[in-house]
């Protein structure tokens, strides 16, 4: 199953489970923000030592998949060819980033 198949599946799930919200891109976008916010909140708590890395490994995947579902739903609502857009963006990034050499500045460079 490729990304467009997943997009179609997510679109059909949305039509079946939430028909009154099927074309509501605001709802989908806000749902995506909520999922990504959950990830950010857990990472923040990990950084301040309130959560363990093992906890992140256990809990973050669920939020990542939730984010992917909302992204695929939005792609469905916009009738987007996810595979084509992914390839186009990857090609752009390859030329933008892959062939550059980055130098890390240190405090002694100042």
Keywords:
110 residues, 4 helices, single chain, 73% helix, mainly alpha, Helix Hairpins
Strand percentage lies at: under 5%
Mean pLDDT, rounded to whole units? Answer: 92
Indicate the CATH architecture.
Orthogonal Bundle
The domain tally reads: 1
Can you offer a commentary on this structure?
With 110 residues, the protein is mainly alpha-helical. It has a single domain (3-102), classed as Helix Hairpins (Orthogonal Bundle), CATH 1.10.287. It contains four helices and no strands. It is flat and about 60 Å long. The N and C termini lie far apart (52 Å).
Summarize the entry for a quick read.
By secondary structure, the protein is mainly alpha-helical.
Topology overview:
Elements: H1 3-17, H2 25-47, H3 53-77, H4 82-98
Helix pairs in contact: 1-3, 2-3
